[in-house]
């Protein structure tokens, strides 16, 4: 039964990775894989407590899904009111190298609050309006992918993987930001420095071909309202980690409050503006219809599938194998980071969380190898390394992250071109970031 579950999971993984080749949505594959794995586990009678385990896994997974639905709704609310145009419209520099640095830094910090896919869409669409030369635009887009992934790695709300680790108690908000900000920043700065040789020092001339449709989100929204929705939306997202630290309640509770507050605000605004046509009102009830439900269902399927492997004891067996053959947190997480350039980082991180439960500090100190066990306590070295490697490792290939896939689709970036031009830059930043974490660990 164990062998069958492993084969089924690997087959599902392969179909997910080949989504664009076979034409089957990865969400459908994840849901079938989830159901099949739990069915196998139940029919094999592996554990009499299978029902309670299934309920427990579903509860943990739904906490993440509720959080993501709230965050995605707030981000879409900002976008539909043209809030992001408030940021991009202020980019006026015409020097190409200065523009490169500006776009990279904006992407880095924006993706720490928003998800990296949304950030990449905004910045790549902007590039298509301001960089006319295709080769240079691809360089800019490649750096945007790196910056989006690195920006999400140091923030508890910047990437699905960090959200998972934060919500499960593996990391805390402030220690994560404190330990990973510099490594994440350097993983962007180093590639940008190296990429400057590809970008001419000349001023950019003219504009690129129009990229935005006629009905750009927020086109009919007044600038004042766009700024207000941007401010309240971002404030709501930033409120969540503060809420968790102050109350100790799960992050999804803070997210429900943030979403509800933004919902009430927009309802009040539109109720007072009776002269505005209903068709151009972007109420939350309208925004909810645009939520990316296939992505939500993908997370449901893949996290529950990994939960089945955990309940079957497969992940704990894998952890013991890694401990025997690698037994080094940098080696384990470094390998995971390389795998995340090919395999979706969400199930990778979920699998690691199943393999290595958060260790109690006292139990770690009393273990046979206390120095190694201390890496797995809450906010231990392993979890910070995992956040960094799983997040930034996706930049090594253009298909390794949602940001990369978006850039590839919008700009038709060639896989081989990215491998030659951008992947070495991303690898340099990845290694420098890991080296920085190692030096910080030695200095602690």
Give an overview of the whole structure.
It is a single chain. This protein has 444 residues and is an all-alpha fold. Helix content is 72%, strand content 0%. The protein has helices at 2-17, 19-22, 26-43, 50-80, 83-88, 96-110, 116-130, 134-153, 160-167, 173-195, 223-247, 251-272, 284-287, 293-311, 314-325, 329-339, 345-355, 361-365, 370-373, 381-392, 402-411, 415-421, 423-443.
| Straight-line N-to-C gap | 45 Å
Shape: globular
**Mean pLDDT level:** 84
Largest sheet: none
Question: If helices are DSSP runs of H or I spanning 4 or more residues, what is the number of helices?
Answer: 23
Order of helix and strand elements from N to C terminus: HHHHHHHHHHHHHHHHHHHHHHH
Instruction: Assign the structural class, choosing from mainly alpha, mainly beta, alpha/beta, alpha+beta, or little secondary structure.
Output: mainly alpha
Radius of gyration: 22 Å
Amount of beta strand: under 5%
Number of strands: 0
Helical residues, percent: over 70%
Contiguous runs where pLDDT drops below 50 for at least 5 residues:
205-216
